[in-house]
Amino acid sequence: VSGLFMFVVIFVAATNEELMFRGYAFQRLVEAAGPAGAVALSSALFGLLHLGNPFHTWTSTLNTVLVGIPLAVAYLRTRLLWTPIGIHFAWNFVQGFGLGLPVSGLPPPFSVLKAEVRANELLTGGNYGPEGGLLATGVILAVTVYLFLSKSIYISEETRKLVFAPASIAGSPAGAVISLRTPGQQADGDRRESD
Q: Does the pTM of the predicted model rise above 0.90?
């Protein structure tokens, strides 16, 4: 029962944060400011949101800002919000319920294991949890590079058609189109039709 409780709590929290920071507002920001601007702004806001968490440090704040980057890249590479939700949930669930480590300064009420951090707080994150340490900084940077370069993470053809194909909105004025492209960007289908 405690495992199911933790599953639900962590899943709802991860989903809520991803909807706030990689959901509709982020997607509109990508159109307005471009992907780099949207990622930078949403990641900074994501870090600021966690300033109220217990045991936060400059390292934990930096890491929280940095982790917003791979979460945003995961969305941009797939255009599926469940991708960053899954990454966010898995990290928090394994860290909190699996290992019994604090998640963003919040100790889990239940866990399978009960890990104790006794090494240097700057490296391990101490009471904030692993995401507050420099070891996590290295992991976050490695994951970011992997998500940028991986050929196994991409938008599927079905999703590409749904996201980038012009679609009229029922009941909207003629010619109104929903598109997640940035200004001046063409989808592959548009290029083929214009050739």
A: no
